Every structure is written in C-alpha cells, then in structure tokens.
Amino acid sequence: MSDESGKSLADAGTLAAAEQVLSGGHQRRGLKRLLPFLGPAFIASIAYMDPGNFATNIQGGAQFGYTLLWVVLASNLMAMLIQTLSAKLGIATGRNLAELCREHFPPWVVWLMWGVMEVVAMATDLAEFLGAAVGFYLLFGVPLWFAGLLTAAFTFLLLGLERRGFRPLEAAITAFVGVIAVCYLVETLLGHADWKQVAFHAVVPQFHGTESILLATGILGATVMPHVIFLHSALTQSRIVVREPALLKRLFRYQIADVTIAMGLAGLINMAMLIMAAATFHRAGMTDVGSLDSAYKTLEPLLGKAAGVIFAVSLLASGLSSSSVGTLAGQVIMQGFLKRHIPVWVRRMATIAPSLLVIWLGFDPTRTLVISQVVLSFGLPFALVPLILFTRRSDLMGVLVNRKLTTVITVVIAALIVALNFYLVWQFFFGGTGHG
User: Tens digit of pLDDT for each residue in 209-264?
Assistant: First the structure.
C-alpha cells in the first residue's frame, strides 16, 4: 500500500465517522462517538509534558517540596483555556494563528513576531532534544553526543508518519502520552506522597524566595507553550471542515472534550512529576537534586532500580515525541508568517545544531533546560495577545466568537504572565537573587 492510499484510508475513515456524528446519523455513544474528534489536543499536549517540564518540576519539587504545586495546577488550567481558544480559531476561520497574524498585522510586526517565535521554537527544541538524548544516555549508557544522533534519527522516523495522514501521527503521539502517564503513575505510587500536603499546596499560592519565582516562571513556560498555541490552530483548521453554524458549535463541543481529556492528563502527569520529586528528594533532604542525571541515579537507592529505569523511559518517550511536535510547530510558524516552506529534514537539521553544540561544549543539560523554559515564558505574550484579539472578533469567528467573560479571563491570564516575567527581571537586576 502506498503512502497516499494509506493516508486516504486512515484519514477518510475518521472524517466519514466525524461527519456522521455531526449530522446526527451516528448512533454509537460514549467514547466511540468521541473517537473521530480525538487527536489534535493529544499532539498539542505532548508539548506540555516535555523534558523541560521534567527539569522544572523536579527542581521545584526537590528544592521546595510541594510548595509550587499550585503553579503546576494553575498553569495547566490556563493551558486548557488557551488551547481551547487555539483549536476554536482554526475551526471557525479555516486558518491558523500565524496566517491570521500575517493577514491582519503590518509587515514589520509580522517579521518581529516570526523572529520571536523562531527563537522560542529553538528554545523548545533545545529542551526536547536534550531531554531525549539524556534519556538514551541514562538507559543505555551511550555518550551524550551519540545519544543526540540517535534522537535525531528516531525523530525523523516519527515525523515520517505525517506522510501517511494525521491519524497515524496522532496515534503514535497518544501512545507516547500513555507511556509517560503509566511511568509516572508507578513513580507516584512508589514515592508514598503526603496527600494532605498535596491537597493544601495545590490550592494555596506560596513562594520561597527569588529562586522559587524563577522556577515558577520556568514551570509556566514549560506548561503554557507558545509554539503549540500556533500549532493547535493549524491541527484543527482543515482536519474536519464544516461551515454551518449549528455544526460548528457541535464540532467545537467535541474539540472541548478533546482538549479536556488530553490537557487534563497532561496536567496530572505534570503534578505527578513535582509530587514524585517532593516525596522522594525533598523529604530525604536532597534539595540540590536539580539534574535529570542525578534524579535518575538518586531514585535507585531511594525507590529501587526499577524506579530509575521507569524515569528514564518516560524521559525518552517525552523527548522523542515532543521534539517531533516542536518541528511540526516550526513548520507552521514559518509557513504561516512568511508563506515559505522548507523540507522538514532541513528544519530538523537546523534545530539539531544548537542542541549538539550544547552537548559538545559540556553545558549542564538540566540547567540549560530550565533556562530554555524561561525563554518560552517570555515568548508567551506574542502568542497570547493575537489569539485574544482574533477570537474576540465576530467577523472572524462567527458563532464561535468569544464570550466577554472568556476574553476577560484570557486577558487576566496574559497580564499575569507578563507581570510575572517583569517581576523576575526586576528581582534579578535590582532585588538580588537570594532566597527569601
């Protein structure tokens, strides 16, 4: 079977089932009814549990226990809303966020936004590539430079699934999500968390000095991902196309379910990462466990050899899948802003270079991961502001235009993110960096 025939069969079956459900001709209920619409949010969600999340959550849990758990929960709730708006934008307009920016903003703004988002994409890929390389290194003991080459090869194979349509890639990414979820379920059970403290810190905001604010910003940057805001709108813009107002509303309800399930799972995994670090490292007084390598080695004497292997497997699954998603997002950003297309392998090779350079120069991979996540946090307004501007416009969105309350909540979220970033810069330059 050729690639094209495989693509037509895989996608056509999903589209036919979706059309039947939307038209009311599909009598199956429950998950079977929902299945044709699941997928885009799962591809987006892998970016919310990439190696950058491992680095920031493990450092946060090891240094501050359960204190920053509320940041993880709040960030994932924000991500749910933001990804829902991104999916809705693609459904309502038939265009992605980058395309709309190109059409509605002055050329100098478009070029500025493209430049910022390319920097964000590089920071994203740096985190994801390094994470997968560390996963290979931990599991098989190969040198980091060779692990980097293995990561590149496996990413090419995963991206090759896109040629067979959206369904095979969605299935592969969902499988990786499942692997990460199972791994962290086991880790959390082995760690014997203090669930009273978990419940308290999940809802009570607290900080402990400037370093905790840096980590909170990193957690936010690792959770609410600017590049995947652009990607999600592209994943929904032509997947299932309807134009009748009633069908648009019905399709959007199914997309809300897709986002809720996928992002809810991503949120639980993120919380499990921090809970595991708090229950093992912080409780044992190992507050300096900041690197992925030391986390792996320290888990073994604390919880047994299986725990270390499970951690490495989850890190590898996260890095490989999220690196592929990051490359797809980079393609969407370039095509949308500039109307230019480069082969995926060229973009993949270009983004590999900084990651291999970091490895060869001997920089600490985990610290590099955390800083890259802070870079992502600073890029968020460049994705959030246009998303808010477009989704509030009835001439673009039609029946799916934002309600006023939705717009207000999203504006508040964007303002909080910007305020946190400016506060962090002010603290570093004028307030000192000590722990309060």
Answer: 777 887 887 677 667 778 899 999 999 998 888 889 999 999 999 999 999 999 99
Q: Which residues have CB under 8 Å from 382's CB, separation 6+?
A: 113, 116, 117, 120, 226
Q: Within a 10 A sphere around the Cβ of 335, how many other Cβ atoms?
A: 17
What pTM did the predictor assign? Answer: 0.86
Distance spanning both ends of the chain, measured CA to CA:
63
From CA 349, how far away is CA 7, in angstroms rounded? 26
- Could you report the per-residue pLDDT of 300-347, keeping only the tens digit for each? 777 777 888 898 899 899 888 888 888 888 888 988 998 877 776 677
Domain ranges across the chain: 38-431
Structure token digits, residue 51? 């190696």
Q: List % helix, strand, coil for the chain (3-state, nearest 5).
A: 85, 0, 15
Give Cα 70 to chain centroid, integer Å.
18
H or E segment and range at residue 388:
helix 381-391
**CATH number for the domain formed by residue range(s) 38-431:** 1.20.1740.10
CA 260 and chain centroid, separation: 14
Give Cβ neighbours of residue 134 (< 8 Å, ≥ 6 apart).
51, 144, 147, 292, 293, 315, 319, 365
